[in-house]
Amino acid sequence: MSTRQRILDVASVQFAARGLHGTRVRDLCTAADVNIAAVNYHFGDKASLYAQVLLDAYQSLADAPMPTLADADPVDALHAWVLWYVRRLTASDAQLVDRLMVHERSNPTGAMEQLVQRGMQPVFDALRDIIAAVGNESLDQQSVSRIALSVVGQCLIYRGSTGLLEQLEGVPSSNPEAIADHVTTMTIAGIRQAAGVS
């Protein structure tokens, strides 16, 4: 394993446990069996290392390429995107991202901007493109963005909530295929309503 990867592996665990400000570079280097100069050489500084850990953790959730309009007709692309996203959110390594994000939300750093620009925005843009195509390009950008946020919200309820949801009477299983079917059906109905198409 390369020195860079050892640093990233140890840093992801330590940042998830302590956040950026609670993690000391000296402790991280000791655990990774590297010197402080190696962190500076590969990442520049602790904040840049942290930003890379956040981005890598977020991007590692994708076990398959993100579906786009190039892969299928708009309705099938929407279903494929939702299924991809739900699988990503419910992946076992999503817990690392959750722990990192708890620290980031409670004590924000400049790393969030990079994560949004390089990780989250391309995912959101692809979803908006699919939604616009499902609506035959008849929806304004604000409507497209709101529908995209609704899709994301419907998927996010399953992240880390499975145990709680299973305790509620009448809640169906959290099978990713069934979730994707439901979210896609509801979204298409919403798009058609917003676009005035029956």
Overview of this structure, please?
With 198 residues, the chain is mainly alpha-helical. It has 10 helices and no strands. The chain has helices spanning 3-22, 25-32, 36-43, 46-60, 74-89, 94-106, 111-134, 141-156, 162-167, 176-195. Helix 1 (3-22) packs across helix 4, helix 3 crosses helix 4 (46-60) and helix 4 (46-60) packs parallel to helix 7 (111-134). The chain is elongated. The N and C termini lie far apart (57 Å).
Short description:
The chain has ten helices and no strands.
- What is the CATH superfamily label of the largest domain? Tetracycline Repressor, domain 2
Number of domains: 2
- Residues in helix, %: over 70%
Radius of gyration: 20 Å
N-end to C-end Cα span = 57 Å
Q: What is the residue-averaged pLDDT?
A: 90
CATH architecture of the largest domain: Orthogonal Bundle
Beta strand %: under 5%
Tally of DSSP β-strands: 0
Largest sheet: none
Number of helices: 10
Q: Which of globular, elongated, flat, extended, rod-shaped describes the shape?
A: elongated
Q: What is the highest CATH level, the class of the largest domain?
A: Mainly Alpha
Order of helices and strands: HHHHHHHHHH
CATH topology of the largest domain: Tetracycline Repressor, domain 2
User: Low-confidence spans: pLDDT under 50, at least 5 residues?
Assistant: none
- Tell me the structural class: mainly alpha
Q: Mind sketching the topology for me?
A:
Layout: H1 3-22, H2 25-32, H3 36-43, H4 46-60, H5 74-89, H6 94-106, H7 111-134, H8 141-156, H9 162-167, H10 176-195
Helix pairs in contact: 1-2, 1-4, 1-6, 3-4, 4-7, 5-7, 5-8, 5-10, 7-8, 8-10
